[in-house]
Design goal:
By secondary structure, this protein is mainly beta. The chain has helices at about 25-30, 100; strands at about 5, 10, 20-25, 35-40, 45-50, 55-60, 65-70, 75-80, 90-95, 110-115. It has a six-stranded mixed β-sheet. It has a four-stranded antiparallel β-sheet with strand order 1-3-8-7. Strand 7 and strand 8 form a beta hairpin. The longest helix is centred in the C-terminal third of the chain and has 5 residues, at about 100. The relative contact order is 0.31.
Length: about 120
């Protein structure tokens, strides 16, 4: 069964940091590129970072130099370290495998990142 469980979001001040985690079922994680996506209110979901099974990573220009993606293949877990957070980073963050997204597969519940005033 497809399973994705995201965690680590919360309330943060501008310039702060958060580390998101995503535990995936082996059927998703094994041998797949994994990605972190985000969806802000009223906007489409976008891919912010991805990492191959061998650890080669890519990040979107909007988060380059601030976000880092990593994975632990032994734990079927992918991480997103977010530093120097900005109010525009407010979103629900999801992880998934791009190959699953492409065929319209399921998503987890996501984890919310919100800025405090």
């Amino acid at each position: 069964q497809v399973q994705l469980v995201e965690s680590g979001g919360g309330l943060v001040q501008p310039g702060g940091s958060l580390r998101l985690s995503c535990a995936a079922s082996e059927s998703i994680f094994k041998a797949r590129t994994m990605g972190w996506y985000r969806q802000a209110p009223g906007k489409q979901r976008e891919l912010v970072a991805s990492i191959t099974k061998d650890g080669s990573a890519n990040v979107a220009d909007s988060v380059k130099g601030r976000f880092t993606i990593s994975r632990d293949n032994a734990k079927n877990t992918v991480y997103l370290q977010m530093n120097s957070l900005k109010p525009k980073d407010t979103s629900v963050y999801y992880c998934n495998a791009p190959t699953i997204v492409f065929v319209g597969g399921s998503w987890g519940q996501g984890t919310q990142v919100t800025f405090s005033s």
